[in-house]
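Dear colleagues,

As part of the handover before I leave the project, I'm documenting each prediction I ran so the next person doesn't have to rerun anything. This entry is a single chain, and its sequence is reproduced below.
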Amino acid sequence: MKKVAILGSTGSIGTQSVEVCEKHGLEITALAAHSSIELLEKQARKFKPKYVGIYREDKYKELKERLADTEIKVLCGMEGLCEIAAMKDNDIVLNSVVGMVGLLPTLTAIEAGKDVALANKETLVAGGTLVTALAKKKGVTIYPVDSEHSAIFQCLQGNKREQLNKIILTASGGPFYGYSYEQLKSVTKADALKHPNWDMGNKITIDSATLMNKGLEFIEAKWLFDLDPDQIEIVVHRQSVIHSAVEYKDFAVIAQLGVPDMKIPIQYSLLYPERVECPTKPLSLTDYGTLTFDKPDYETFKCLSAAIEAISRGGAYPCLVNSANEEAVRAFLNNEIQFIKIGEIVSSILDKFPKTEISSYEEVVAADKLAREYVRGLIK
């Protein structure tokens, strides 16, 4: 029985991960959340993990009181997340927390020799060079949970890595597919939170609307699969049936298809290399009838262009654009800026700071702080 610790257990990916673990009898050793103590308590009482963690320290006392009648140990803050990530009982740590918070627990899990099922984009976007180097040193496997990266991982199975020509990342295009830059100026928060295919948290839904999500996945793919940026192609595929594909040297293209349901890639990351029944519905191609493919509008969706430019430049630039985006999205969700300003802010940071290299976690934290202060200064 594989033992799993889930960071971000009350979010969209986390709750589905819990469902997959329950379906297949995987033991949940620990659960952690940002602030949703009611759901975290329900999960803890049902699955009886050894540990639960709450990131928000102001929620710690209440959660501890709620679970006082159990033998579950309650942890809090970043220290708590890292303690869970390094637990000896873990076979694999599923990291689905949102934002830069996820980087240090990932590094901690790898340092402890634990495999990681990774759904936290910022881990590789901000600290890709650190994470991949440490994983190689420790002999740890990073299993991608994002549907696109899981698709690529699946398409690579049974083939020689050196025969890969390029990968094809598919994108839904978000709710504003086909919009002009002028049209984007009038969209509302409610409009941006209506994703056509996926049910996700607010931050990632806004990232999908700006196409920043695809830019982050572009950067992730570079690190996960050891690629050059020019080996990654983005294709808008509105139906989200083809989750991504790979092209080999002979120009044969292998794609992974399925209904848009995150339980499929979650399950593959936790049970690899096994394939067993998944709690979702099968794909019927005739129900869809037509699958379409288009090129992204890089000029209108500035976040996507900024992310690709950032990884092409290297150094701290991916961290800078990621942190700038986090702050801009926060401001948009708080009604402090218009939707169109997110892309403008993220793009502007590329030429604001000179290139610096990332060789330590502390340097990632410094770049993150620099970007956030810059964005807050623009919003004031």
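Residues 1 and 25 are 7 Å apart (CA to CA). The radius of gyration is 20 Å.

All the best with the project,
I.
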